[in-house]
Design a protein that fits this description.
531 residues; mainly alpha; 26 helices; globular
Amino acid sequence: MKRIFLLFALVVWSNLFAQVGPKNTLDELHQNISKKKEYDNQKLKRISVLEGSLTDHMTLEEKYEIYAALYNEYKSFNYDKAFYYSQQMQQTGHLLKDPVKIADGKIKFGFILLSSGMFKETFDSLNTVNVRILPEGLKREYYFLTARTYYDLADFDKDRYYAPVYNKRASIYIDSAIALAAPGSYEQTYDQGLKYLKLGNRERAAVLLKKLMNAYPLSNHELAVTASTLSDIYIQNGDNEEAIDLLIMAAIADIKSSTKEAAAMLNLAQLLHRKGDIKNAYMFINEAMNDASYYGARQRKVQVSAILMVIAAEKVNSVEEQRRVLFIYASSLTLLATLVILFAFIISRQLKKLKKADKVIVQTNHSLEETIRKLNEADKIKEEYIGYYFNLISEYIAKLDKFKRSVNNKLVTRKFEDIQLLVNNINLKKEREELFVNFDKAFLTLFPNFVHDFNALFAPEHQVKLNAGQFLNTDLRIFALIRLGISDTEKIACILEYSMNTIYNYKARIKSKSLLPNDDFEDAILSIKTL
């Protein structure tokens, strides 16, 4: 009878909360991404006020309270800062000889260690906490953090031996956290939902998490955590559309709370990528990478990078990324040419390996065609820029095809000395010079007034004067790359085949002659308009 009643209750709850509040859209997420800096500035202002309030005349208790407040601001915002203030909390606790404050600092320290994926170090910190002296609120925090550490470790291992052990240990700790939470509170309800989810009871977990989202006044951070957890249930049930809606909601909440240590944007990008929405997937995975880099947790950056590599191959959303992809394909063509030459020397009559080389060429052509099809979805600038370089790449493929047929003929006729002559005739220096000329033409197609606008930043005697038939010189080319969004000096040096010191000297010399202050010069370059 009890089982029937429980089943009936679950059905009622499921129907009652079938729709989890109003759905957010991708457009709303884009709008909030555009406001991300505004939200971050609000947090930074709060942080600035707190840090500015620290003085040498304060008591240790007052300093401790400010350190704790700064930790709470930084814990999901900046790993290094949160690390520092959790250490300050512990040190101040030692100076006060207050074991509860010391333990509080260790628990906070454990949280950020876990956020960076440092499981052993998290346990090392938590194992030094004397739980018996903790007040109930801090004790609940300790138990929940320990449970989450075991849950995360189980998710990381995902094996048949250790993962069940870690999940079992986590259940013990989360039961203690549930027992210490206020009855009917957000903490108790969420902890119960998380426990059921980890036990595999997705139905009961969904009922509790939906109840939170529909009946509780959640903060942005609580909403993000709850929606992300609920999305896992829908993903496990194969309902990716509902999971996407929840992750959009969670991502918006993370942005509003300036939470950088979050997985909602990452998981959303993955689901959109599976759905075929490459444009949004690429944008959101870049946002996830920006957040991971800002936060500073190494494991999260590695996790995002692995997915970014997959999505980035299908969509480029900025000029700098476009250049990077084109560079990768140019490198691939160079590698392919090297492989063909290597096969020509080694294979001789082995037709089977030559067919493998043909297969590689065909696959590369298909990959290039697919990439060009996707890049054509970009805006006007990207379309023109990519179209120009696609013609260039096609010429290289034609050259490569001609070279391959020549080598094949030489192999058939056993004229091996002629093959060496063909290889020696490859002039890489000339090819690079042609590449620069092609770059200059493409760039000036996009920015026809660049030279004029560049010279407008200098007095007449310091303006650039080009030779007849010259499109750009080294000075202009350096800042042309900067206008395209390539600000990394090392990348510029690599592209132009100069040392980093040389690029630094070029930039310093040019800026020193400008009519503008050095700090404003590059902003002026970036403001030069296209067609």
